[in-house]
Each structure stands twice: as structure tokens, then as C-alpha cells.
Specification:
single chain, 10 strands, five-stranded antiparallel sheet, alpha+beta, elongated
Amino acid sequence: MNEKPGWFHISKTSGNKRLARSMLLILCAAISLIFTGAFITYAVLKTVTPTATNVFQSDKNIRIKLDEPQWEDHGRSEALGYVPGQKIDKDPTVTLQADSVDSYVALKVQYYGADNKELTGEEFGKLYLNKDKQDEINSEGIDYSYAWEYIGMAADDKGEVYIYKDILSQDAASTVKKENMTEPLFTRVYLSSDIHQDEVKKKLPEFNIKITAYAIQANGNTYDSAKTEMMSFINSIADY
């Protein structure tokens, strides 16, 4: 019989060693499973609905018109050729136009003297108006209506702001009163008899009263909150 080379040797494993090797393999397999399980990610059920877009838009708006009927009829021409002590008709009135929402309205009154210099109402009155303290209507030289309330002076200029006490709404044909129109803020300007012509120009001084109308929606506003909101609105926009 040929002898096997010395390097070719197989040793027999005893039963105890074979058992130990089997247990080691099982343990390694278990550890492998444990580490493999640590990296398993579980799928989470998810879904999303289509976006529900709720569009809010409106065809509502506020539309007002400022008129001065008596001024346009004859007051303007009288003012262009006034004489000291004259009474000039001027009647600023606001109308709520068709398709407009109910609104609170206000008027800003600005006074300008010679050289178009802006004045306060008090300064303007001293220079150009006939103030009769004994006459309740003519105590300020302008017959302001009680239907309006003075609520303050504009922040960026010397304009006086007056709010109409009633809400303007679309006119009801069944009533005599026009619900869509204010009473005039005033109807007449009383000029002072002490206005003198310029000695150089030989002309009476030129001065003017500027009126601007504003409106805010009535819905959601009380009269008191409307006054605050109106002043904030007027102060937030540029002068026209």
C-alpha cells in the first residue's frame, strides 16, 4: 500500500468538538439575523387627498360721487368775482352710486390762502370769513350741518375731517328721503367785509376751499368704529 505524504493529514474531530462547532455556527447565524433585523425598514401606509381650493372673490365695491349743485350752478361764478362781505353758495354733497355697498362717508376740508398756502380752518377764518358769534349758524363763517360730525384733523395736512352720521344705502323708492345721498356738509360761505385788495396787484386775494370725499363699508362697523377706521384710512393714503 502506498503511504500518504506527510503533509496530507486528516485528523478526526471528536464528538465534543463537533458539537461545539455546530453550536458556534448556530450562534453566528442567530447574531447575523439579529443585526440583519436591526436594519429592516417597515413600510407605512400613506395617502393624500386632492387639494380643495375654496375661492373667495367679490363683485362688491364702494362707489361714491361728490357733488356741489349750488356751487356748480352759480356759486363758482360768484366766487370768481366775489366782493368782501358776500355770501357764496357752496354745498358739498356725497351720493352713493348704484351697485355700491352700504357705506359710511366722510369729507376732508382743506383751506388755502394767497399763494396757495395751506391754512388751518382757524387761520383761514381769521383772514377771509365773517364769523358772527351771535349767530349760531354763522358762528364759524361757514354754516356746517349737524348731520355731520367733526372727527379730527388729518395727520399729514391741515384738513378737517367730518363724517356723516347716517349710513348711505341704496335709495328706497317708497320713501321721500334719499338714503343714498348726504345732506350738504355746509351750504354757504360767509366772506369777511375786512378782506382788502393787494396794494401792489390792486386785486382782492385769491383763496379756496378744497373738498375730498372718502367712504368705508358699513358692514362690520359701528358708528364709533367707523370714525376710527375712517381717520386711519384717510391718514394712510396720499392726498389727492
